[in-house]
Amino acid sequence: MSGNSLPAGLEHPPRLPHIPVMALELVTIPCRADNYAFLVHDTDTARTALFDAPEAAPIANALTARGWRLSDIFITHHHADHIDGVAELRAEHGARVIGAKSDAARLPALDLEVTPGETVDFAGHDVTVLAADGHTIGHIAYHMADAGAAFTGDSLMALGCGRLFEGTAEQMWDTLSRLAALPEDTLICSGHEYTAANARFALSVEPQNAALIHRAEAIDTARAQGEFTVPSVLSDELATNPFLRACLPETKRAVGMEHDSDAEVFAEIRRAKDKF
Ligand code: ZN
Ligand code: FE
């Protein structure tokens, strides 16, 4: 209630400190066998962004349950398990579809073609486009600083990174280095629930990493209770993700490659994961 006057003689209550309104709400939606899609809702403008569309139905249900209308669909890369729901959701909601200009030929029809380094406006919030080549060529990631979140698709993943289907190890290492430079408290919203299997591999690379041992236990507990392990926090990835840690002396020592370049060590860890 505002503007109400207190009865005479009562002291005016102390003014509360200004508490910033959390205008952005992040929702993780499981799709298909092990995919995730993400909604970011801006309560001030009632706009809602979707990051990847593995399939339409669970996303449509999540929107209906909250009474939200989709305004923007951001795509990370061309694989079917990230775009299959785009056409239906776009037709239903009239949403603007955003994806990489360089990969437009393989993506659903785009309303906005973007290039790494550029910034897209979502409801007054900057969404920065980051190059994320490696898993595919033309893969991009999105960083929304106001949401404290990066949408990384199949580039940086919880305790892992995407397979190198199209790009080189050098390209993926560049991608991971770029994402590693984001604020440490950034939520890494990645495309799949692969974390438990990733943890087993990570422990084979760094069996002595105490933070990793602790995280692997927490992941097993979470999965046993049916909880998501995505999004994860970048600081946890920096402490435990063997792919992100390829540049560290302790990781190089663990794989017996003290004198090799960061990208070479990353390439070796990625090869080992493919065979794990
Ligand atoms: Zn993919
Ligand atoms: Fe995928």
Question: Do you know the CATH topology?
Answer: Metallo-beta-lactamase, Chain A
DSSP helix count? 9
Sheet of most strands: 6 strands, mixed
CATH superfamily: Ribonuclease Z/Hydroxyacylglutathione hydrolase-like
Widest sheet, order of strands: 1-2-3-4-5-6
CATH architecture: 4-Layer Sandwich
- Low-pLDDT runs of 5+ residues are none
CATH class: Alpha Beta
Number of strands: 14
**What is the N-to-C succession of helices and strands?**
EEEHEHHEEEEEEEEHEHHEHHH
| Share of helix, binned | 25-40%
State the end-to-end CA separation.
Answer: 61 Å
Written account of the structure:
By secondary structure, this protein is an alpha/beta fold. It has helices at residues 56-66, 80-83, 86-93, 169-180, 195-205, 210-224, 234-240, 249-254, 262-275; strands at residues 24-31, 35-42, 47-51, 70-74, 96-100, 112-114, 119-122, 125-131, 140-144, 149-153, 156-157, 160-161, 187-190, 232-233. The longest helix is centred in the last third of the chain and has 15 residues, at 210-224. The protein is globular, with a radius of gyration of 21 Å. The termini are far apart. The model has no long low-confidence stretch (mean pLDDT 94).
Question: Which features characterize this protein?
Answer:
globular; Metallo-beta-lactamase, Chain A; binds fe (iii) ion; single chain; 9 helices; 276 residues; alpha/beta; binds zinc ion; 14 strands
